[in-house]
Amino acid sequence: MLAKLFSPKEIIDENTQNWIFDTFAWAIENFEINVLKNDSRLILPTNEFYPGTVSSIDEMAQAMFINTKNYAGMQKWPIQLSSATPTSNTAIEDLSLGPIIRGDHAEVAISNGALILGFTPNQVNQPQDLIAAISQTLASILVISNKVMPPGGKEYLPQATDLVACFMGFGVIFANTAYQFKGGCGACNNASLNRQAALTEPETLYALALFCVLKKEPMKNVKGHLKSHLKKDFVNAYRSIEQSLSSTTQPALLALVSE
Fold first, then answer.
1. Nearest to 233 by CA among 202, 196, 191
2. Domain limits of the chain?
3. What 3-state class would DSSP assign to 32?
4. Residue 123 confidence (pLDDT)
5. Which terminus, N or C, of the chain has the lesser number of Cβ atoms within 10 Å?
6. What pLDDT sits at residue 195?
7. How far apart are CA 215 and CA 257, in angstroms?
8. What is the pTM of this model?
9. CB-based contacts of 177: which residues, under 8 Å, 6+ apart?
10. Which of 57, 43, 46, 175 is nearest to 119 (CA)?
11. Which of 40, 38, 29, 250 lies closest to 146, judged by CA?
12. What residue ranges in the chain does DSSP mark as E strands?
């Protein structure tokens, strides 16, 4: 009875919790555990992560894109950002992936130019939104190019994409922008990078909290960067996950928890 009394409030149901744990384990197994352990960071919408001054809207967008691509561990991927109407017909299916797909040693090639992501200049006025949209599109490319479907199969690709963005470190930005703007992430050649959240705010917070617990990121480093109405749910998710991971049998998660 006392254990129940002092347990953190669950912000999502048990089935969704299990899916998030299983899908995070799938991401660990498919998207380079060493990059997660050694390189991935909690990306915050601050000057520390997106520094510098620029002289034009296009230059600002390109700087945000390059930083986001690097933080995602996809710096070696042939992907470009353009404000012009894309003329390339290159598709995700044209990518050739080696045994390592993220980080400095990734082996990713394409025979026909590059994947082109579009943006509109007015998006740069809301940097956090643009970063979220770029990171979601990068996650989508990573997920779609993978040969192994996420838990739940093809129908869960949109949800898996959002989770992978959190897995790559963008959970704070994703939670803050879940319902700020409308639109679809679409294909790589979509001129609009606006995204539509596939995970709810509580589900996104739970994925963010899982990343933070696995990376041993203290709650205090996160709360100050979340919208005020998200903070309590994040704390509850963080504490719930700490308890759950103490008894997990998921090998991919155990590999991180035991360190």
1. 202
2. 13-257
3. coil
4. 82
5. N
6. 63
7. 9
8. 0.89
9. 128, 129, 132
10. 57
11. 29
12. 79-82, 95-97, 108-110, 115-118
Tell me which residue of 167, 148, 146, 150 sits closest to 158, measured CA to CA: 150
pLDDT at 194 (0 to 100): 52
Residue 121 token pair: 């200049």
Residue 205 near residue 241, CB atoms below 8 Å: no
Contact predicate 165/197, CB 8 Å:
no
Please state the length of the chain: 259
User: So what's the pLDDT on residue 5?
Assistant: 47
Separation between Cα atoms, residue 72 and residue 64, nearest integer Å: 12
Positions of the chain with pLDDT under 50: 1-3, 5, 180-193
Half-sphere exposure of 249 (CA within 13 A, CB side): 0
- The pLDDT value recorded for residue 120 is 83
**In this structure, what token pair is assigned to residue 102?**
């993220």
User: Residue 110: beta bridge partners?
Assistant: 95
- pLDDT, residue 257, reads 77
Assigned token pair, 16: 């969704």
Q: 182 is written with which tokens?
A: 């409308």
In the Cβ-directed half-sphere of 162, how many Cα atoms lie within 13 Å? 27
Q: Which residue has the tokens 């696995």?
A: 214
Burial class (CB in 10 A: 0-12, 13-18, 19+), 151: middle
Report H helices in 91-250: 127-145, 157-165, 171-176, 201-214, 220-223, 231-245
Residue 213 CA to residue 112 CA, distance in Å, equals: 41
